[in-house]
Amino acid sequence: MAINSAGLQPGQGADEENKQLNTLPSDVVDVLSSVSLRCVNCSAVYPALEAGPSSSFAPRYRCECGGVLDVEMAFRLPKEQYSSARTQKDDPVFFDFDAGPEDAPSAGASWRQLFDERASAPPIWPISTDKQLLDASGVWRYRELILPAPEQYVVTRPEGNTGLYPVGIENCGPGRAGHRQIGLYAGLERFFLKHEGENPTGSFKDRGMTVGVTMALMMGAKAVACASTGNTSASLASYAAQAGLRGIVFLPAGNVAGGKLAQSLAYGATTVQIRGDFDDAMRLVEQVCNELGIYLLNSLNPFRVEGQKAIGFEVLQQLDWQAPDWLVLPAGNLGNTSAIGKAFRQAYQLGLISNMPRIASIQAAGANPFYRSFTQNFASYEPVQADTVATAIKIGNPVSYTRARRSIEESDGIVEQVSDDEILAAKAIIDRAGIGCEPASAATLAGARKLVARGVIKRDERVVGILTGNLLKDSKTGIPQEVGGTVVDATFDAVRKVLAE
């Protein structure tokens, strides 16, 4: 009998898929029964495990009002942390989600101790236990604050643990004269670049995908899908393959860099190129997932966004829990702005840090609906027809707009736009410093430079910039046409002439 792209028999719809796949193990039910989903628009609350037809469970991605959802749960310190935490009577320890740091001063120290102990024990390969693998991950190290999934379901490579490079005029040490050029370009004395291109598939998307695919496995899914400009699809394809799930990716035809497309194909994902842009692909994948019972893994999925919080937690830990003044990052579908803002808020509430960093989201001028809304004090929002060389942020109607707006407002942040010329100029600086990044990542440096020039970011403030993707993701854009260097005869004189130029 033929099977369609979702792994369903002909005529089998979402109801049958839910009934077939979602008889959940008790350990999964125990975890997810304490998790809820809150609408960012109207504050309606839904259980993470929502009953579907025939006593099954169905994933929910939107509120009845159409708004996106946010994960809420009580945070629990593991038993070994009891002695150093101020506890209630509950077992394990619970801390109120809305509490400020004044309500949990000792809890903050206990959380820091827990995460620092996990980070200080480097794994010995091959890793022999699930716990060692989780502790080695720069996402699952913070599992109590992200998703306390049963260890046997976690799909990790592991991800995270990406470099935080000092590139400022003053904080760039000896032997890094090239890196200091980045600080000089930005006009910042204490500047760090966090390179998420060092993740397993070359982008920050792995942070969310490890959690999203883990949730898919916990929910009994057989297929996962996303719309993508390239990075999400590469990540989904890799993690789905590892988990033994079918990966399905929808891409805007002709608008995905070759390196990213190659990853999706190599990892075995069913790759569908849509005649349209990313927003068309997003609209279509949401419909396909709802109709065919496929588990959706775009940032519309609130659990995937939870994984991206780990970027914020890891930055804070790498800075010894001393929060920076600013965090600057590219802004496309706005999942990172949402997730990192939430991570900072939760870290502050739990007493992990004593002050909230401000967030600066940088959009390409040709794909700037968030920036346009910000300039109107978020009084209105209008999608745009996106057009930019930075294909990773070439999105005209970002799914996470409402969540990202909250992050900007809560952090007293800002949204800026930069031109393609500014992006490519910044990319050249990062590349020639020996770090390298894809074009969208360079929006971070271009935006930081612009905000320093405007006086929004002060020269002596401590600033962290996020590079979201690896240079090899889009190795052609912004590279001079004479790729491959100068061709000469195989003689010493010919080489000497070139070197003298």
TrEMBL record:
<dbReference type="GO" id="GO:0006565">
    <property type="term" value="P:L-serine catabolic process"/>
</dbReference>
<dbReference type="GO" id="GO:0003941">
    <property type="term" value="F:L-serine ammonia-lyase activity"/>
</dbReference>
<protein>
    <recommendedName>
        <fullName>Threonine synthase</fullName>
        <ecNumber>4.2.3.1</ecNumber>
    </recommendedName>
</protein>
<keyword id="KW-0456">Lyase</keyword>
<dbReference type="InterPro" id="IPR004450">
    <property type="entry name" value="Thr_synthase-like"/>
</dbReference>
<feature type="domain" description="Tryptophan synthase beta chain-like PALP">
    <location>
        <begin position="188"/>
        <end position="469"/>
    </location>
</feature>
<dbReference type="GO" id="GO:0030170">
    <property type="term" value="F:pyridoxal phosphate binding"/>
</dbReference>
<feature type="modified residue" description="N6-(pyridoxal phosphate)lysine">
    <location>
        <position position="205"/>
    </location>
</feature>
<dbReference type="InterPro" id="IPR001926">
    <property type="entry name" value="TrpB-like_PALP"/>
</dbReference>
<dbReference type="GO" id="GO:0004795">
    <property type="term" value="F:threonine synthase activity"/>
</dbReference>
<keyword id="KW-0791">Threonine biosynthesis</keyword>
<keyword id="KW-0028">Amino-acid biosynthesis</keyword>
<dbReference type="GO" id="GO:0006567">
    <property type="term" value="P:L-threonine catabolic process"/>
</dbReference>
<dbReference type="InterPro" id="IPR036052">
    <property type="entry name" value="TrpB-like_PALP_sf"/>
</dbReference>
<dbReference type="GO" id="GO:0009088">
    <property type="term" value="P:threonine biosynthetic process"/>
</dbReference>
<keyword id="KW-0663">Pyridoxal phosphate</keyword>
<dbReference type="GO" id="GO:0009097">
    <property type="term" value="P:isoleucine biosynthetic process"/>
</dbReference>
<comment type="pathway">
    <text>Amino-acid biosynthesis; L-threonine biosynthesis; L-threonine from L-aspartate: step 5/5.</text>
</comment>
<comment type="similarity">
    <text>Belongs to the threonine synthase family.</text>
</comment>
<comment type="function">
    <text>Catalyzes the gamma-elimination of phosphate from L-phosphohomoserine and the beta-addition of water to produce L-threonine.</text>
</comment>
<dbReference type="GO" id="GO:0004794">
    <property type="term" value="F:threonine deaminase activity"/>
</dbReference>
<dbReference type="Pfam" id="PF00291">
    <property type="entry name" value="PALP"/>
</dbReference>
<dbReference type="InterPro" id="IPR000634">
    <property type="entry name" value="Ser/Thr_deHydtase_PyrdxlP-BS"/>
</dbReference>
<dbReference type="InterPro" id="IPR050147">
    <property type="entry name" value="Ser/Thr_Dehydratase"/>
</dbReference>
